[in-house]
Structure formats: C-alpha cells, structure tokens
C-alpha cells in the first residue's frame, strides 16, 4: 500500500473504532471505483479490522487489537 493511502486507512480504522459498523454501512460508505484506493480491504488485510457476527446486528466490521495498537501508535 502506498504512503498516500496510510492516512485513509488510519481514518477508516478510527471510524470503525468509534463503534462496530454494519458490513453494509462499511461497503456503502467506503466503496470506491478506484482500484488503487482499497482502504477498507487494506485495513482488513493488515489485520486492523475484522468481520464478525454479532447477535441482533448481523455481520459487522470491528477493530482488532492490532487496529487499536495502530491507532495508539499514530496518536489517535
């Protein structure tokens, strides 16, 4: 991933860290037609966020321990 995308990954992880987000919300909010800006996929590939099923909510995207560490390391 390019350094240009790193701030966007950081923004994304911070957004998810506020509360687990429904998978559909993540897709609709962070989708892009640019193959070079795969922000939420990059965050998932790096282990900063993960898909999980939560009773009553369904499939959600939540921040992992690595994601929390990524936020702290970057002052967020």
From TrEMBL:
Source superkingdom: Bacteria
Protein name: Uncharacterized protein
Organism: Bradyrhizobium niftali
Species lineage: Bacteria, Pseudomonadati, Pseudomonadota, Alphaproteobacteria, Hyphomicrobiales
